[in-house]
Write a structure and sequence with these properties.
The chain is an alpha/beta fold. The protein contains 13 helices and ten strands. α2 links the parallel β1 and β2. α1 packs antiparallel against α10, α5 crosses α6 and α6 packs parallel to α13.
């Protein structure tokens, strides 16, 4: 994606509002400080430095591995450790319901106009009050075409005994239970105990086939050819296939998860104006392009979408078809049923 790099320098100065009064939280040098909590490997490493260069606002950047880890960390700290957080759809709904998020003044985020309308007024934030979309994508199977006997098109491949100890599953309760529920013909958002027990039993049946339940490290391991099959996010599949051309990606025919990760501001933020400036910066075309190139997930920013190279338009990973998306579900907040999911996952991993 080198063709996009020439756009950055000329446009970077256009992406910010005046920032003379961005909050009171200060760093060691006396300047304002912004605390950002994001997924691992989910931003171009240069972006926070560029934000500081343009605004004088220092960024303290920390990472999490799963929505549930992020939520637990914020609860444990009382929220004071972070300003901007980037959760997924269902977790945003949960955090709204628990009064953990601050409304965002979109007058201070003019680049919100660059977000495609498809990613506005979504069920988890129907009035666009608490979140600004950052990235979106699907969950599917990355498979090594030299290590499987035939093209993969179903979640049932993850239960095929031919691939014993050759499968990576996600270390994620919602994703791993979700794909199992889809394979069984159920909703990923079910609260039905019998359906959840059936999915749990299928995961118990599968466990002897699983090499590991892992997170971000799946990329390096699949690039190195350490397994035949892995449940991955679409952007990770792209990263893997760029370095190992034997890797293919599929959204299984039973359907999958369509997710949207969004930028939010915690209710306890000590620097909400700087947080809004950061969100605006992240939505600008040069920065959104930079992050899109680095992360490989799909961007909701219109000018990024418009400049997507033609060869990527038919990619299930980059730009899923309407038919593929119609089979996908967005995760919902499960309320009290969340604990049941967690209990099932604890039983599985501890078995």
């Amino acid at each position: 994606m080198k063709q996009f790099r020439c756009l950055r320098c000329g446009l970077l100065a256009l992406c910010l509002l005046p920032l003379a009064s961005c909050g009171s939280s200060s760093g060691p040098g006396g300047g304002p400080t912004l605390k950002v909590f994001n997924w691992g490997d989910y931003i171009d490493p240069e972006v926070t430095a560029l934000f500081t260069q343009e605004t004088g606002i220092k960024v303290i950047y920390t990472m999490f591995d799963a929505n549930e880890d992020m939520y637990t960390s914020i609860r444990a700290s009382g929220g004071v450790s972070h300003d901007v957080v980037i959760p997924s759809d269902y977790m945003i709904r949960k955090m709204i319901n628990e009064d953990m998020l601050r409304t965002i003044d979109l007058d201070n985020v003019p680049n919100y106009a660059l977000i495609d309308d498809r990613f506005k007024n979504l069920d988890f934030d129907p009035q666009n009050e608490y979140s600004v979309p950052y990235m979106w994508g699907t969950v599917g199977i990355a498979y090594n075409t030299t290590m499987v006997d035939e093209p993969i098109d179903s979640w049932t491949a993850l239960w095929d005994t031919r691939y014993q100890k050759n499968i990576f599953m996600m270390d994620s309760v919602r994703d791993s239970l979700g794909i199992t529920l889809k394979m069984l013909g159920y909703s990923m958002n079910t609260k039905n105990g019998a359906e959840l027990e059936e999915a749990y039993n299928k995961l118990v049946e599968q466990k002897p086939l699983v090499l590991a339940y892992i997170g971000d490290e799946v990329k390096d391991k699949m690039i190195a050819g350490e397994a035949a099959l892995a449940v991955v996010y679409a952007g990770d599949a792209i990263t893997i296939s760029e370095q190992n051309p034997d890797i293919a990606y599929v959204i299984p025919r039973e359907g999958s998860n369509l997710w949207v990760d969004s930028m939010c501001i915690l209710k306890t933020s000590e620097n909400p104006e700087a947080a809004e400036a950061f969100i605006n910066f992240m939505c600008s075309t040069p920065i959104a392009l930079r992050n899109w190139e680095y992360i490989n997930y799909s961007s909701p920013q219109k000018e990024v979408i418009a400049q997507m190279p033609e060869e990527l338009q038919n990619s299930s990973a980059r730009n899923p078809s309407a038919e593929e998306l119609a089979r996908c579900e967005v995760f919902e907040d499960l309320s009290q049923t969340t604990q049941y999911y967690e209990d099932l996952w604890t039983r599985l991993i501890g078995a």
